[in-house]
Design brief:
- It is a single chain.
- The chain is mainly α and 448 residues long.
- It has one domain.
- The strands form two sheets. The chain has a two-stranded antiparallel sheet with strand order 1-2. It has a two-stranded antiparallel ribbon with strand order 3-4.
- A hairpin with a 2-residue loop joins β3 and β4.
- α4 packs parallel to α12 and α6 runs antiparallel to α15.
- The relative contact order is 0.18.
Amino acid sequence: MESGRSAHPRARSTDRDRFIDLVRATSIVVVVLGHWTMAALQRTGDGGLRVGNIMEVTTWLHPLTWLFQVMPLFFFAAGFTNALALRRPGRVRAFLVGRVERVTRPSLVLIGVWLVLCVVLIAVGVDEGLVDAAGQNAAMILWFLAVYLLLALVAPVQVQVHRRHPWLLVTVLPVLVLLLDRTQHTSWAGLGFLNYLLVFGFAQEVGMLYAGGRLTRWPRWVWPAGAAAAVGLLVLLTSLGPYPVSMISLPGQEMSNMLPPSVCVILVGVLQISLLLWARPALTRWLERERSWLAVVVVNRSVMTIFLWHLTAFVIVAAVLLGVGVPLPEPGTGLWWAHKLLWLVLAATVTAVLVRLLSFLEWLPSRAAVPATPMAAPAALLVAVGMTMVASAGFAHPFERGGVSLAGLTFAPAPGALLVLVGLLIVWWVPARPGRGADEAQAVGTHR
């Protein structure tokens, strides 16, 4: 997840694509607001607490997820930056090392804090169900970073395919995704998790097409036409086909659009990217204003910290408000929405404090081994697997398997955290042999 940490509103304006910076900043803001808004806390009959999703009771919100499920936009921006980072041959190791270090260093702080915190909370008598819910929700964001690293791993090969056959993957990947969609709820369901790479790899490929200037050469009428076609296909698949309208996984769905992602998420990506490219000339002019560009820079400067800690901020707010006895209205009612405004303001305030305290982790100098380690790819894979384990297990019980089952497997978070740490240590302390990899002596992969 690239940031704008070195970009000042008046600096480096000629070597940046401000439109991509805006896409990244907007995406993170939408994700944060979406997570905070969807969280619906309810008291159970026995006095416990259930963390639900507001869209379970407000079905009128489901079509809005076609605009606000913005994960494809993250990978569209990543495709752009990855394509730029890999323009010169011989930089793959350094590219992967840069990605691993950038993602892993701040993530390990989050993982360590939560693993210790959950043990302490349970030890002092806090309700175990509450700790479970808090730990599961705080950990869920790590699945995205796992996918991000896996796509960084395949990016060098994807760039090579793209150079030889620039339109091949955007044609083939949707077909493969559609085929894997059919494995949901079958004995082959585990194969469906490949769609995380295929669906978001499609978005990454579109970002590479944009980086090469191919998309900006098309006439503007293509983009509203593309958006209309995507909406038409979404309506068809969600009304006549087996797919739910919501792009967020919800209890009771016969099929999921996000666990794993379906072909509908590709269409959502096409819709969103088409709308943004249609508006690109106006957005570019808007970004020429110093205040507008400053707002984008501020978000990009701490994008990892915002993403990692925004759910923790919400948990802190929930603990305080529930501790002082704030009532929990019935989700979806007018009173619930009025209360939600208070929760959003408080969550934003706590997030701002956490960003102020922790964003320095994004700006620390690199400690990566020079020349870049030949173990860069295994290190990235270890980190991705470890983050997947932690995200699915949650933080509450470090050495117990549990949480969300992935292809029939459950995990414990502590071993996953160890894999993440080992991956980081590899890129820090295992240099290439002298005389080899000199062209990778400086980590690359930055569009910051």
